[in-house]
TrEMBL record:
This is Uncharacterized protein. Keywords: Signal. Residues 1-22 form the signal peptide. The keyword Signal applies.
């Protein structure tokens, strides 16, 4: 399953257009719509990138979509930068310009920072949390910039007596981005719970490969503790949208598997490792039997987890093709 690393841009775009109350206000409406038009073009590019990231494993194509976002961002920023003010009002234009610049920074500079963290995210639970925090920080920057544009747009409308109406296409795109944000937030919580188990299990595997009974036992105890924490975390996470539990429960099943093995089979494996130099054939067969049984069940549960994660993204992140 591909873990979502999407940088959202929904908050940047108000998705609003205006109609004038009287013919005399046609010019400010046209001025507003020129800025909104660039916003909508950018939003389409962002959604194409988000959709490709969620529904494709092809990193080359995903990166190509991100580059499309950056290229369009530069073009739109240049257009808005060359727009004059309207009857002395430059705030709306300047706020939009600043927002486009912020987006360019996020999709280039901040994106590279996120990628750097992604390289080391599997080293620890803390590293994975920093990675997700970096994604959230990038999205927050866009949200702040977007709020600023929306406020300036509203003041522009008030000053020039424009009536605000919502564009159907923009409303549709904003709804897609809202859904993506909702999925990301939920998915990251579930994944961190799963990752906690994976890190603890890796230590157990290291102890087993080293044939070190003390190391294996210490890892078993750590896994037992991490499993309890994971189950507590999962208990606090509700069903997605109040009804879908498949993704969360796939991790819960994985954790319950470790509860059983930490308290039984892994204990017996520790005892056998402690006498590894004097094992009988029966002991060796029992030890190998534990390993084979573990590998079989672990593979089955991991496959269920990956399938649940893929199904979760496919079900709740819409495919967007403009």
């Amino acid at each position: 399953m591909r873990i979502s690393t999407l940088l959202l841009a929904g908050a940047l775009f108000t998705g609003l257009s205006f109609t004038a109350r009287a013919q005399a206000y046609t010019d400010p409406g046209t001025y507003n719509n020129a800025i909104v038009a660039e916003q909508l073009i950018m939003q389409k590019k962002c959604l194409r990138y988000i959709s490709k990231s969620a529904h494709s494993e092809n990193e080359r194509k995903i990166e190509a979509r991100r580059q499309d976002v950056v290229a369009q961002n530069k073009a739109s920023l240049a257009k808005i930068s060359h727009m004059p003010g309207y009857k002395g009002n430059t705030e709306f234009r300047d706020r939009a310009k600043a927002a486009f610049q912020q987006m360019l920074n996020v999709y280039s500079v901040d994106y590279q920072k996120v990628n750097t963290l992604a390289v080391g995210r599997s080293k620890s639970l803390e590293a994975m949390q920093r990675y997700f925090d970096a994604l959230e920080a990038a999205e927050n920057k866009l949200e702040v910039a977007g709020d600023s544009v929306q406020a300036a747009q509203q003041r522009f409308a008030t000053r020039f007596n424009l009536t605000m109406t919502e564009d159907r296409e923009a409303r549709k795109m904003n709804e897609v981005i809202r859904q993506v944000s909702e999925v990301n937030t939920y998915q990251h919580k579930i994944f961190l719970a799963y990752f906690r188990l994976e890190r603890a299990n890796a230590q157990l595997t290291d102890g087993l490969n080293a044939q070190d009974a003390k190391r294996f036992e210490a890892a078993r105890l750590a896994l037992e503790a991490e499993t309890d924490k994971t189950l507590a975390e999962l208990d606090a996470i509700p069903a997605f949208r109040g009804k879908d539990t498949q993704y969360r429960d796939a991790v819960r099943d994985y954790a319950k598997f470790y509860v059983i093995w930490s308290g039984n089979q892994f204990k017996k494996m520790t005892e056998l490792l402690e006498q590894k130099d004097r094992l009988t054939k029966t002991d060796a067969d029992a030890f190998n039997g534990y390993i084979n049984a573990y590998n079989k069940q672990n593979h089955k549960l991991l496959e269920a987890y990956n399938n649940a994660g893929n199904a979760f993204q496919a079900a709740y992140i819409p495919v967007f093709n403009d």
